[in-house]
UniProtKB/TrEMBL annotation:
Keywords: DNA-binding, Transcription, Transcription regulation
Taxonomy of the source species: Bacteria, Bacillati, Actinomycetota, Coriobacteriia, Eggerthellales
InterPro entries registered for this protein in UniProt: Cro/C1-type_HTH, Lambda_DNA-bd_dom_sf, LexA-like, LexA/Signal_pep-like_sf, Peptidase_S24_S26A/B/C
Name of the protein described by the UniProt record: HTH cro/C1-type domain-containing protein
Span of domain HTH cro/C1-type: 9-64
MF annotations from Gene Ontology: DNA binding
Gene3D superfamilies according to UniProt: lambda repressor-like DNA-binding domains, Umud Fragment, subunit A
């Protein structure tokens, strides 16, 4: 049987701008449950359906459980799947003290025209206050690994082997400087030598080219 229920759920999630984890939090289920529904590996139980319609009263039963009148037909057919594109969402990246970047086997939707401009891009969640003048805590940043390195732009960087942060980066001949942009004066810029190895080595993951606030941001 075709997985029209999963397509309807994915279409609704994409239209709302939810990650799988975000929708799961609202419905009281795990990210893996949402992924399994969308992939057709399992179906929502009756209690899950009740949570769905209680959380989103604008939805009808057909929106989720109908093939011909479902959400996928209402949205994805009209857009031919080109209005939004699913891109990898790899988890959290700090805008304060660098934290370990946690991989998440998940995707999130972005506008198709932005994807076309940055086809190899991926998403990371920004946490912390060191960049709050330009990127608020909790926003989702789109990272382009193919952008050329230009001093004064905002980049996602990995400090050491696993830690990651987002900062304004100034490139010098033998060093890079990570500069915060915060209302909090406690955040200070820091310079790393390009010749250093080990814990202080810096790897540029890509430039921040776009960001957005997730649904229910600030609540």
């Amino acid at each position: 049987m075709e997985n029209f229920i999963g397509r309807n759920i994915q279409a609704f999630r994409a239209h709302k701008g939810f990650s799988q984890e975000g929708l799961g939090n609202i419905l009281g289920v795990s990210q893996t449950s949402i992924s399994a529904w969308e992939d057709g590996k399992s179906l929502p139980r009756k209690v899950n359906a009740s949570e769905f319609f209680e959380a989103f009263p604008e939805l009808s039963h057909d929106d989720i459980f109908s093939e011909e009148c479902g959400y996928a037909c209402k949205t994805l057919k009209r857009a031919r799947g080109l209005d939004v594109v699913q891109v990898p969402f790899y988890g959290a990246i700090a805008a304060g003290t660098p934290i370990e970047m946690i991989d998440v086997d998940e995707t999130m939707p972005i506008p198709g025209h932005i994807y076309n401009a940055y086809p190899d891009s991926f998403l990371l969640r920004v946490s912390g206050e060191s960049m709050n003048r330009c990127i608020p805590d909790g926003c989702i940043a789109l990272i382009d690994p193919d952008s050329e390195w230009v001093s004064g732009k905002i980049y996602a960087v990995r400090v050491g082997e696993t830690d990651a942060t987002v900062k304004i980066v100034n490139f010098y001949k033998s060093s890079v400087e990570l500069v915060p942009n915060s209302y909090d004066p406690r955040f200070k810029k820091k310079k790393y030598s390009a010749a250093e190895d080990g814990n202080d080595s810096v790897h540029i993951l890509g430039r921040v080219v776009w960001f957005f606030a997730p649904f229910n941001f600030g609540k």
